[in-house]
Amino acid sequence: MRRGRTAIAVLLGTLMLVGCTTTASDGLHPDDERSGPGTARSGLSGEVTVFAAASLRTAFDDIAELFEQRHPQVDVKPIVYDGSSTLVTQLQEGARADVLATADERSMQLLVDSGLASDPQLFATNTLVVAVPAGNPGDVDSLDDLADVVTVLCAPEVPCGVASTTLLDAAGVQVTAASLEQNVTAVLEKVAAGEADAGLVYATDVIGDAAVDSFVPEGAADAVNRYPIVALDDADAAGIAFAEFVRGAEGQRVLHDLGFGAP
After folding, report:
1. Which end of the chain is more exposed for a tag (fewer CB within 10 A), N or C?
2. 117-141: per-residue pLDDT in tens?
3. In terms of pTM, does the model score above 0.90?
């Protein structure tokens, strides 16, 4: 099972090399380095409220700290993390945020269609792995095994659930999940606690987590999630700058170091 971590690293490295696959028809465009996003702006001040997909917690906490160091007069409020579809619903119902980062393009498009934001930009990619409790007590070695053990999945309406359905359907595996969670963090927590024999989570979630083992299932490269970010239409200069910072050199370095692929 430990060799699975090496395979994850190889897969993520491949995604970094070949990740720039967005077309103009998506309405979402990867960063053009010549545009210089992430460049420090003098005179920024105020507060920035960020909503972000649960799988971005470690990365965005680090990025927010860096951003505040570059802009001492800006206060990034504690970031709100949850499933992407949940965050979009909250914004549609009147919650206030300057920046939204989702784990899929579909959720972001729902926000755009609501008239709350426009022109989101891709900033990262991620892929799925099978996570099992350390030591793999359920002896799970393939996607097929998920049909025969206690398996936890993301709910089908959230990005990790969409990706999981894509992966399992392509493999012809039918899984009756013990529970369907609203974000990937909840899936990983149940696996780590031994409440499930296996779960499908993002590759970035298991890196450095001693409570779980993992492996890259066959077909994972065909179920890649692309992450867009946008400053909402009523965001001020500091919010716009934060979204640009994520896509800039320093933000991308943090994401790369944590295992995310290039957009």
Report:
1. N
2. 999 999 999 999 999 999 999 999 9
3. no
